[in-house]
Amino acid sequence: MAEQVCLRCGTPYEDGATVCFTCGAPIGEIETPTQPVRAPKRTAPETIELPAITPNSGAAHGADGKRAATSAGQVAIASRPGSAGAPSAGRLSGRSGRGALIQPRKRTRWPAILLVSAVVVLFIGAAVIEVRGLLAGPPIPKAQVYHDPQGRFSFTRPTLWTVTPESDGALLTDSSGTDSAQISVAPAPTAIPGKKTTPDAQAADGLAAQLGLPAQATQPPQTIAGAIWQQREGQVIGSDGTAREIDLLVTIHNGLLYSIEFSSPTSSFESINNLVYQPLLASFSFK
Hints:
Blueprint: H1 57-63, H2 65-78, H3 89-92, H4 110-135, E1 143-147, E2 153-158, E3 162-166, E4 169-173, E5 180-187, H5 199-211, E6 218-224, E7 227-237, E8 243-253, E9 256-265, H6 269-283, E10 285-286
């Protein structure tokens, strides 16, 4: 029996062998070496980053194609792994490199938002004022003019005070009835014989005595509505024990005796006199 040898290296092999244990070639293989070879080292795929296109870069590339191509080539070569001097991603997307992406500045919109908000607030405020004006009634005047139904006098009174017409004049009171102003009209009295005082002064003394004013209540006369008024002023104690200040003014006009009596608690007379009584005297007029 002939000896069986490897056709490639000539080394004998036993029956049933399929591979030469010397060279590793299959039995009967003579053309190509079948020795195991090392697999090639795999490398990561290359990534080529192209420059970002900006509104100005297109015109620059059209005007100078060579320079654009050169820049693109440099970026591609620099992005290959393992290349020396390759810039980092941060440098490629930096602020000053040629071909790098230039980030536009974000515009601040706060002024526009504030302007729009102010306009909206103004429109809302105007709408609220208009609605309130439509729903609300006419404004209440602070004062009103009272005319005597018999056409003898007139004066201005506070709106919140109540005026009650009377046959001999009018009675004006506040909401609580604590403060009052009484305007009275009566026939003029004749002079009392033997007295040196004028009829209006004599009438003022008589009315003051009826009200309980002391003898020293005489005050200097006042000129109101073109006439001279005799004045009497003092304190009296009411039936309820409250001390009240009374101011009495008396004059004779067109054959009629006019008297104005102001009455308020002593503690509040001064403020009521400034707010109500003096404006009433300033507005008083004869018809």
